[in-house]
Amino acid sequence: MAIIHPLLSLENVSIAFNDKLAVDKLNLDINAGERVALVGESGSGKTVTALSILRLLSQAKIDGQIRFQGEDLLQKSADELRKIRGADVAMIFQEPMTALNPLYSIGNQVIETLILHEGLTARQARKKTIHLFERTGIREPERRVDSFPHQLSGGQRQRAMIAMALACRPKLLIADEPTTALDTTIRARIVKLLLDLQQEEGMAVLLITHDLNLVRRFAQRVAVMEQGKLVESGDTETIYHSPKHPYTIKLLNSLPVRQIGPIAHNAPTLLQTKQLRVEYPKKQPGWRGLFRSGRFVALNGADVSLREGETVGVVGESGSGKSTLAQAILSLVSVKSGGLDFEGVPLAQRSKRERRALRARLQVVFQDPFGALSPRQTVEQIVGEGLALHFPELSKAQRHAKIVDVLTEVGLPTSALSSYPHEFSGGQRQRVAIARTLVLNPRVLILDEPTSALDVSIQNQVLRLLVRLQKKHGLSYLLITHDLAVVNALAHRLYVMHDGEIVESGDTEAVIANPQHPYTQRLVRASL
Amino acid sequence: MSIPAEPDTSPIFLGSNPALAPEHATSRAYAHVSPSRRLWLRFKRQRLGYWSLIVFLVIYGLSLAGEFISNEKPLVIYYQGQWFFPMLNNYQESVFGGNLPIYADYNDPFLREQFKKPGNFALYPPNPYYYDTLSYYSAGTHNPGPPSRENWLGTDISGYDIMARLLYGFRISVTFALGLTLVGTALGILIGAVQGYFGGKVDLIAQRLIEVWGSMPELYLLIIFASIFQQSFAMLFLLLALFGWVHLSDYVRAEFLRNRQLEYVKAGRALGLSHGQIIWRHILPNSLTPVITFLPFRMSAGIMALASLDFLGLGVGGQSPSLGRLLLQGKENLDAWWISVASFGVLVVTILLLTFMGEALRTAMDTRISGQRTD
After folding, report:
1. CB contact under 8 A, A413 and B12
2. Closest of B213, B234, B243, B242 to residue B315, by C-alpha
3. Residue A502 contacts residue A495 (beta carbons within 8 Å)
4. Which of B269, B270, B374 is facing A423, going by the closest CB pair?
5. Residue A360 contacts residue A441 (beta carbons within 8 Å)
6. Which tens digit of pLDDT belongs to each residue from A343-392?
7. Is the dihedral of CA B10, B14, B18, B19 positive or negative?
8. Measured between alpha carbons, how far is residue A194 from residues A50, A174, B192, B203 in Å?
9. Global model pTM greater than 0.90
10. Among positive and negative, which fits the CA dihedral B265, B270, B271, B277?
11. Is the CB of residue A180 less than 8 Å from the CB of residue A94?
């Protein structure tokens, strides 16, 4: 009986960019029909590994052997490799919008692969494409075949990408963060689709992700990477139940834990929105659009309240209006109707001067730690800016002392004062952003996806910091997120938003345990 | 409530980048380097552009000190026990032993003889001609005259020393272009910033006005104005500056449109900063890439504009030295090759230096090319 080779085997693979080692002596086997997950945080080298399999990296030096069906891919000529790419090994990428050519219809891009690799005629290829689209769950495939990428939603685009990858019945599918750019409920459906297809086709799948939930649901075997090294690999259940390497343990422990403190029962309501409504002008199709614009209701009558020391979560998908709600509360967008009470007084009754002073007590932390800090200011300038504006009576020395205090409080060293944002990692930048708001002694912090751009272990550090600050200063948080796990970890109460409306609200644990609205039910099913 | 025992203040630098641990921070070459300083360091590494900048600054510096390099008046005279400073005072010939009550011409062989007498002495600049010095006493051919020991680069059709004309012409050209660049850039930034920051109707209306303004034929306006008014530098400057900003404001507007969407601007608004503070402190420093990249190219465009107008006879007339008019003379007197060669050479070198600088700046600005990622 012949020895069965693994379908793909990486032997001592090292990848270097300009003397900088990205992957260090990696060994990994994937058998035919197996589902393997490669897990790691950003910078761990997992995507580089995936790209190296098909030699899609330019300017990288690859050592070792990458054997596919017993043949070393690194020794193949460019022509031979092209026959393997797409036909035997296919890839799907994280962001389907950029991975699809915007100038071709999605059908065209699949048909192209079929004609190239399978030698079909154009007519046959089109028929097969429609069939593929049907199988990957694209609605109205006959019509969608001629759609362009921008005409599809994110989930539909990812389905088209999958159809494209499956076109030639590959033996191995490499999925590089296939669901990261998608909303939670759509994620679940894509994962289910991948599972179904994998079982029908019997292909092997290498899933690259940082999402531990996804791994557990999908993979049979897990390989964990840390800073270019494979630190642990094994059966999924074994790794989840008895991880050995400290990094794996840290990674598994970094799933957010519920850690909320009690609220005083006489805590006053700080923030109360009354039927907030926000509309954006929307261009109407045809010549009518030239004369009058339509309305897109981003937020339709939102009532949200927030008590002192309380964390309230606002959950929803992109486009559900949750960020609009935050911006409306901060008066960063103009409100069509409805009002807002802050500290018991309607905002409309306050003078312009009072409203400006009030901004110190109502602060915001944004999602993107790279965009939220001006790249040309030092940390001291960034943190000190609001201080100079709202507390002009402070002397320079007092201001400096306050900045140092607040940096220590968010866990940054004093040496960070003269640093620029580009010198920090994502988690550190988020700490600077928190320090900038904290220095003004706010009462309410609006956290707009504060952790979704961060790695899981960093995410947990930031969440812990937020909880500690809340306990110490009695802060109230309005936590806006798409991630039910984060809300579950932090929020006392919860609002679920869908299409600009609040569809459900209540105690976090109660809502998650017993969701009423169909959308909430879908969301909870998809997340847990 | 279950707060994990591990305090979150201790793992300060658990970020994804171990190079950021505090003990490493000081040893890193680019620690705490501001973005503008990083740009300068990257520019410095472009050797050609960096040396072009130095050479250009040296030449411009020399031309600014032109009075000490190319002048008909000696820097200092010691005559019969007394010190004279002809550059500060006008002395009559009679002071130095002449017999006419006219201002001294220091290139007069008689005066030169006087200063050579024992006990006397005069320190002449290296090139003893001002841009409007006529050498009455020279023995060689003039109007125009080929390069000689007296006139290193020859003389032009009026008998002026070409070396002196080029030196002062360069000074005027560069100063003019520098002023034009500064005013054009300031206007471009101002208008582009207002358009880009406020957007919407302001942008729409301003953009239409700019289109109308930009479609005015600049050259015709110059010709028309040249025929109505006595052409002067101020007039030329005004006309060129009025049209020079249009191009740049588009770029600044685009940068502002992009940057005002970013979260640090929203964070600034949430802090309660005024529009002016946000524009000045947050968006402007992050929108200067196209402005800085274009600076050298705008300079060379300014120099060329002045030279072309002079060449076409639409520039400033009179005695003032001008690269463009020297070129015109060269064209009209092809046999006097030294006129065209010298003036053409100066223009080529100037524009080349500026272009090298611009190229280097562009490379330094583009972080993708330089590969100098510090984060």
Report:
1. yes
2. B234
3. yes
4. B374
5. yes
6. 888 888 888 888 888 888 899 998 877 788 888 888 999 999 888 888 88
7. negative
8. 18, 11, 49, 48
9. no
10. positive
11. yes
Please, how many CA atoms are within 13 Å of residue B347, restricted to the half-sphere of its CB? Answer: 21
Q: How wide is the angle at C-alpha A302 spanned by C-alphas A299 and A306, nearest 5°?
A: 130
Total count of residues recorded for chain B: 375
Residue B375 has pLDDT above 70, yes or no: no
Residue B191: pLDDT band (50, 70, 90) is: very high
State whether ipTM is beyond 0.85: no
Q: Are A299 and A480 in contact, with CB atoms under 8 Å apart?
A: no
Residue type, B34: S
Instruction: Tell me which of A42, A293, A358, A374 to substitute to probe the interface with B (most B C-beta atoms closer than 10 Å).
Output: A374
**A120 φ, ψ (degrees, to nearest 5):** -80, 160
Question: What secondary structure does DSSP assign to A440-468, as a single string?
Answer: T--SEEEEESTTTTS-HHHHHHHHHHHHH
Can you tell me whether residue A513 is helix, strand or coil?
helix
Strand intervals (E) in A351-403 = 362-365
Structure tokens at B182: 């500064």
Nearest-Cα residue of chain B relative to residue A363: B270
Residue of chain A minimizing CA distance to B268: A386
Of A29, A357, A280, A342, the C-alpha closest to A172 is A29
Residue B355, SS3 per DSSP? helix
**Token pair recorded at residue A479:** 């936590």
Residue B272 sits at the chain A interface (C-beta within 8 Å): yes
Cβ separation of A468 and B286 shorter than 8 Å? no
Provide Rg for chain B, Cα atoms. Answer: 29
Name the 3-class secondary structure at B182: helix
Encoded tokens for A288: 């009518």
| Distance set, CA B165 to CA B146, B196, B282, B323, B341 (Å) | 15, 45, 46, 8, 14
Nearest-angstrom CA–CA distance, B310 and B300 = 15
The answer to whether residues A313 and A260 touch, using CB atoms and an 8 Å cutoff, is no
Size of interface A-B (CB pairs under 8 A): 137
CA–CA separation, A91 and A83 (whole Å): 14
Closest alpha carbon to A213 in A241, A182, A247, A240 = A240
B160/B180 Cα distance (integer angstroms):
28
**A67 in Cβ contact with A28 (< 8 Å):** no
Residue-wise pLDDT for A490-511, tens only, equals 899 999 998 888 999 999 989 9
End-to-end CA distance of chain B: 37
- E-strand spans in A347-455? 362-365, 444-448
Q: Which residues contact A265 (CB under 8 A, 6 or more apart)?
A: none
Handedness of CA A426, A58, A203, A165 (dihedral sign): positive
Q: What is the 3-state secondary structure (H, E, C) of A128-155?
A: HHHHHHHHCCCCCHHHHCCCCHHHCCHH
Distance of CA A87 to the CA centre of its chain: 30
Rounded to the nearest angstrom, the minimum Cα separation between B63 and chain A is 36
Averaged pLDDT in 10-residue chunks for chain A of 528 residues: 73 84 87 89 83 82 86 85 84 79 86 84 90 84 86 82 85 86 78 86 88 84 89 88 87 78 83 88 70 78 89 87 88 85 86 86 84 86 90 90 91 86 84 91 90 80 89 91 87 90 90 90 81
Q: Closest by alpha carbon to B246, among B212, B197, B288, B286?
A: B212
In whole angstroms, what is the distance from residue A62 CA to residue A52 CA? 8
Q: What phi, psi does A502 have (nearest 5°)? A: -85, 115
Closest CA to B150 of B132, B138, B162: B138
Task: Sort B230 into a burial class: Cβ within 10 Å, 0-12 / 13-18 / 19+.
Answer: exposed
Nearest chain A alpha carbon to B261 = A371
User: Is B68 in CB contact (< 8 Å) with chain A?
Assistant: no
pLDDT of residue B228: 84
